[in-house]
């Protein structure tokens, strides 16, 4: 085996020690070699990125290893998923078309005509937006030439899990496929959510090649956000705000129920889509704590039973009739059916609607409207239009106040969210100064 320059230097340095330290030198050399190989066993960025397809040989290696009962990950109970929590990305690993990774040119990914549609639906849960679902549950894909045989095998194993347990078909891109996923080792782990259009990236880079993380990122592409973003999450977990950088609190926002469909399921602690307990920690202490002390969150081993049920339910798979959880309460079912309001953004930056009096339009408002949900990026438009009394949001159109209500306003405004339809209600209500509306 040829040694790298780094390994040769280590050998030369160690060789100057006395012979009695031979055993120590040998162990040090092995550690260095293994460290170097571990960092490069999945991909080689010195090779130009080109689109390739997985082959039968890639899937065959998966089958052979499984027959030997050889585990995918060397330490599956202690997987480091820190690469998923990039402070500069939405929720750590969700790519937005308005602020893509600097190293990844997306100029050919989404054409100009579809950009409005893409940006409008980008931050919504795909189950509420039919155009974000992949037609016939078929997802064309390509794989970067930078992946080694080990990397290709890991991706093949994740895709094989989808094929065995869902009706979603990850299919090698055909010549006539315009919309497809390109998997590449870019900067950490990230994905778009659902079918955005054109060539859309999924990055599985450094720290992202464990089977659970690969399944997680592909599940974003299938059409799912993170589990802890559910509106009801505070009934199941505590967010430990003191351990989170104040400028990153937006990474723990929640979704309005008119944008996310629970698909008949309760909160799933064991979901592969759940944040880990140390997500975005500023001090190494937990940021999310389950209210049920006996459960764990943030597993990266693979699908939970509820994950599989939701994927199959979303795409109307034949085996989607059995819910692994008990039925939701009638109150939860009622909240899921809340109507979507018709509202527009007024020129003053407040929410304008047909509700001219300061009254709540929904009986559920006192229960679902609180400080967090009324100011949430995803639920503010819905709740302030339908629950202005409970949200204390009966603004007049001649409001002359001009300030930012959120610490992260400047960051989101800089990424273009003031101009995106889906964010306008939130941004113009909470970030007037950063959006330049006054």
TrEMBL record:
Its cofactor is Zn(2+). Keywords: Disulfide bond, Glycoprotein, Hydrolase, Metal-binding, Metalloprotease, Protease, Signal, Zinc, Zymogen. PROSITE patterns: ASTACIN, SHKT. Residues 69-82 have a biased composition (Polar residues). It comes from the Eukaryota. Residues 325-339 have a biased composition (Low complexity). Zn(2+) binds at residues 216, 220, 226. Residues 125-318 form the Peptidase M12A domain. InterPro entries: Astacin-like_dom, MetalloPept_cat_dom_sf, Peptidase_M12A, Peptidase_Metallo, ShKT_dom. Binds 1 zinc ion per subunit. Residues 358-394, 402-438 form the ShKT domain. Residues 61-82, 320-339 are annotated as: Disordered. GO terms for biological process: proteolysis. The keyword Ribosomal protein does not apply. SMART domains: ShKT (SM00254), ZnMc (SM00235). Its EC number is 3.4.24.-. The keyword Glycoprotein applies. It is an enzyme of class 3 (hydrolase). Metalloprotease. This is Metalloendopeptidase. It comes from Meloidogyne enterolobii.
């Amino acid at each position: 085996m040829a040694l790298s320059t780094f390994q040769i230097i280590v050998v030369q340095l160690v060789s100057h020690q006395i012979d009695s330290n031979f055993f120590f030198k040998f162990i040090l050399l092995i550690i260095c070699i293994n460290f170097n190989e571990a960092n490069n066993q999945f991909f080689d960025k010195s090779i130009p990125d080109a689109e390739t397809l997985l082959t039968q040989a890639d899937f065959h290696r998966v089958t052979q290893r499984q027959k030997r009962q050889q585990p995918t990950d060397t330490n599956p109970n202690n997987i480091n998923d820190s690469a998923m929590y990039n402070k500069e990305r939405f929720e750590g690993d969700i790519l937005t078309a308005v602020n893509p990774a600097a190293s990844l040119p997306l100029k050919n990914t989404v054409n100009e005509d579809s950009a409005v549609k893409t940006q409008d639906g980008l931050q919504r849960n795909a189950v509420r937006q039919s155009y974000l679902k992949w037609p016939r549950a078929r997802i064309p894909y390509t794989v970067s030439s930078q992946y080694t045989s080990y990397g290709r095998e890991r991706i093949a194993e994740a895709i094989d899990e989808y094929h065995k347990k869902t009706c979603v078909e990850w299919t090698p891109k055909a010549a006539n496929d315009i919309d497809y996923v390109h998997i590449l080792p870019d900067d950490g782990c990230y994905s778009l959510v659902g079918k955005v259009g054109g060539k859309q990236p999924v990055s599985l880079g450094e720290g992202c090649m464990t089977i659970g993380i690969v399944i997680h990122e592909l599940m974003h592409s299938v059409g799912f956000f993170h589990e802890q973003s559910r509106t009801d999450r505070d009934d199941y977990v505590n967010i430990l705000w003191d351990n989170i950088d104040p400028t990153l609190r937006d990474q723990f926002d929640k979704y309005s129920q008119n944008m996310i469909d629970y698909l008949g399921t309760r909160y799933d602690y064991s979901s592969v889509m759940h944040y880990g307990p140390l997500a975005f920690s500023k001090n190494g202490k937990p940021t999310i704590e389950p209210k049920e002390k006996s459960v764990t969150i943030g597993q990266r081993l693979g699908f939970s039973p509820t994950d599989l049920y939701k994927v199959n339910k979303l795409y109307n798979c034949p085996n989607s009739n059995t819910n692994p959880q008990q039925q939701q309460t009638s109150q939860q079912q009622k909240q899921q059916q809340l109507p979507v309001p018709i509202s527009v953004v007024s020129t003053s930056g407040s929410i304008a609607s047909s509700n001219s009096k300061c009254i709540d339009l929904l009986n559920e408002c006192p229960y679902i409207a609180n400080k967090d949900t009324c100011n949430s990026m995803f639920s503010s438009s819905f709740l302030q239009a339908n629950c202005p009394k409970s949200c204390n949001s009966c603004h007049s159109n001649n409001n002359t106040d001009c300030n930012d209500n959120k610490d992260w306003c400047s960051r989101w405004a800089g990424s273009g969210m003031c101009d995106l339809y889906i964010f306008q209600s939130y941004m113009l209500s909470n970030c007037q100064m950063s959006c330049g509306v006054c």
